[in-house]
Design a protein that fits this description.
The chain is of the alpha+beta class. The protein has a 3-stranded antiparallel β-sheet with strand order 1-3-2, covered by helices on one side.
Length: about 80
């Protein structure tokens, strides 16, 4: 069990390091919906928590819609609510 836990921690550490060194360009068309929700993130664990929080907010406040990833900067991740 400890080996699995160490493997998960190592994978998260490597994923966080590799995300900082890569530059990914995405083109996203502006949506007709509400403005994107921004969350402060610095690593993948914070990104996962932000994605969950955005999904919960959309589900509760926007008639059962789900959050959709829009883009990410070094310090924030942006999500918007989208129908299923």
């Amino acid at each position: 069990m400890k080996i699995i836990g160490l493997g998960v921690v190592a994978a998260l550490a490597l994923a966080g390091c590799s995300m900082e060194s890569k530059t990914v360009e995405q083109s996203t068309a502006p949506s007709a919906g509400a403005a994107p929700m921004s969350y402060p993130v610095h690593n993948m664990a914070e990104y996962d928590a932000a994605a969950t929080a955005a999904d919960d907010a959309c589900y509760k406040q926007h008639d059962l819609e789900r959050a959709r990833y829009v883009d990410r900067t070094l310090e924030t991740a942006n999500f918007e609510c989208a129908p299923r």
